[in-house]
Write a structure and sequence with these properties.
Largest sheet: 5 strands, mixed, barrel
Strand content: 15-25%
Number of helices: 6
Strand order of the largest sheet: 4-5-8-13-12
Shape: globular
Length: about 325
């Protein structure tokens, strides 16, 4: 089975010269999603008829396209808003080695929640969101329920809104020379090299030795340098430039994004759980995060008395200026 690359090493470009062509209009984006040869638009009706699970893949039981000669990941894509809540697309996912429930740093997964788009220029993102949830729910139902097993869905409820949990593995164990040669031969045969080392062609800011984790994680990161590779987020800004790790939060939290993802299932017999995951394969920012709401009380002079008792100074009242009956 050939898996999609976990982390692209170079931004997608319009030509071999490396010039980027930003995607800006909703119609172009939607056409790309609906007609991409590398995936399926996530709101397409009855996607379950096109898929089946491939057991025992690197990321678990991975969803693949049914009826193909080559077992490729089934990639689904759509436009979403990244929620500001439960945002862990940070360089260390807020890992705390003192917390026994966090496990090992090498097992850390970055995660965020995807919600319906809230951009008027991309209305289809909010209109199609329920259909996307229906498809994801149907993917999960393809796995027969087992008695007394807990099902952990990718769909969550947060502050009255339904969200999709998106994950990304931050580390990948280094492979041996024999494994590298075998993967290289396989990629030569199908004409698509999907096993390029994650650090190839990237600047020093994407290197595991300079990765910007919190001080509490520094020693744990140093222990992984010889055994693991870092897997930067395959996330690009509006100009299709790979986003450096120190900008993950400022560029992604609250942004409108185009997402390409795989879907997988893990059955953990020891804890009696069926766990489903949406795994990030590529992300492109379409619109940057909106500014946070401002307060009329910000920067007031406390020694000037209550601000609500001072003249409005030309500002429009919040509830209109009409007189009360």
């Amino acid at each position: 089975m050939r898996l999609a690359p976990n982390t692209p090493t170079t931004p997608p470009t319009s030509s071999s010269t490396g010039t980027c062509t930003p995607i800006s209009t909703a119609s172009i984006v939607l056409d790309k999603l609906q007609n991409s040869p590398g995936g399926f638009y996530a709101a397409t009706p009855k996607l379950t008829y096109r898929v089946e699970y491939f057991p025992g893949g690197r990321d678990g039981n991975i969803l693949i396209a049914k009826g193909r000669d080559d077992d490729q990941e089934f990639i689904i894509c759509g436009v979403f808003q990244i929620s500001r809540n439960d945002f862990y697309f940070t360089p260390d996912a807020n890992f705390d080695p003192a917390n026994v429930f966090h496990g090992r740093l090498s097992d850390v997964k970055l995660s965020c929640r995807l919600t319906a788009g809230r951009n008027n220029s991309f209305k289809f993102a909010s209109e199609d969101f329920p259909a996307i949830l229906d498809n994801l729910n149907a993917f999960e139902k393809l796995v027969p329920s087992k008695t007394n097993y807990e099902r952990l869905s990718v769909i969550h409820d947060s502050l009255g809104h339904r969200t999709i949990k998106l994950t990304h593995s931050l580390f990948e164990a280094k492979t041996t020379d024999n494994e590298n040669q075998r993967d290289h031969n396989a990629s030569d045969n199908d004409g698509n090299n999907s096993t390029t080392t994650v650090d190839s062609g990237l600047g020093s800011e994407f290197n595991i030795t300079t990765w910007p984790v919190a001080e509490r994680c520094r020693n744990h990161l140093e222990d992984l340098v010889s055994t693991h590779d870092i897997c930067p987020l395959p996330a690009y800004n509006e100009n299709h430039i790979l986003i450096p790790p120190h900008q993950y939060e400022s560029k992604l939290k609250g942004a409108l994004v185009e997402v390409h993802m795989a879907f997988c299932h893990h059955r953990i017999n020891k804890s009696k759980r069926d766990i489903f995951n949406c795994i990030l394969r590529e992300l492109i920012v379409l619109s940057p995060p909106a500014a946070m709401p401002t307060s009329p009380f910000k920067r007031r002079r406390l020694n000037a008395g209550p601000s609500t008792e001072r003249p409005n100074k030309g500002k429009q009242p919040i509830r209109g200026s009409g007189s009360s009956p």
